[in-house]
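Tokens as discussed.
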């Protein structure tokens, strides 16, 4: 994962649940491989999202992103679909933690969701702690993740970090 992420914005509102990302009904369906769940990502919010999203694209949302189930499927499928980062006014704790654990950057911002429209060009510099909406010429600073979290994100998640480094990051 690059420390600078660039992509188009996919704008969503408040209270996007893990069931909006991937319905719980697919957890119990006879789908054994995560890749086979991709066609159902955001199926009721953004039909055929998996065909439209491009590597590095960014989800921009309001408050309460990721509430609901503690399943890792939601952030794992966003990452697998190519989402480079999720920006939101707030996240539910478990989704936030799961995202970091699987190597998907999640950033809390307040102004960017207010000014961003579908398809705007977004740049996220994780190390500098800056999000830019290049289309609108708006920039917002955030607290950059600590070094240990950047290393986990760069490794592709905590499991990949441990495999690579043969130790925990703290």
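Sequence:
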């Amino acid at each position: 994962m690059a420390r600078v992420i660039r992509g188009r914005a996919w704008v969503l509102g408040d209270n996007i649940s893990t069931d909006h990302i991937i319905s719980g009904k697919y957890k119990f369906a006879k789908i054994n491989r995560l890749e086979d769940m991709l066609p159902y990502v955001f199926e009721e919010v953004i039909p055929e999202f998996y065909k439209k999203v491009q590597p590095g694209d960014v989800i921009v949302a309001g408050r309460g992103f990721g509430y609901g189930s503690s399943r890792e499927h939601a952030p794992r499928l966003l990452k697998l679909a190519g989402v480079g980062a999720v920006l939101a006014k707030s996240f539910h704790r478990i989704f936030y933690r799961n995202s970091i654990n699987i190597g998907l950057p999640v950033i809390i911002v307040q102004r960017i969701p207010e000014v961003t429209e579908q398809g705007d060009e977004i740049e996220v510099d994780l190390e500098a702690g800056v999000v830019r909406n290049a289309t609108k010429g708006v920039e917002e600073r955030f607290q950059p993740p600590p070094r240990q979290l950047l290393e986990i994100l760069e490794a592709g998640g905590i499991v990949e970090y441990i495999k690579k480094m043969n130790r925990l990051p703290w």
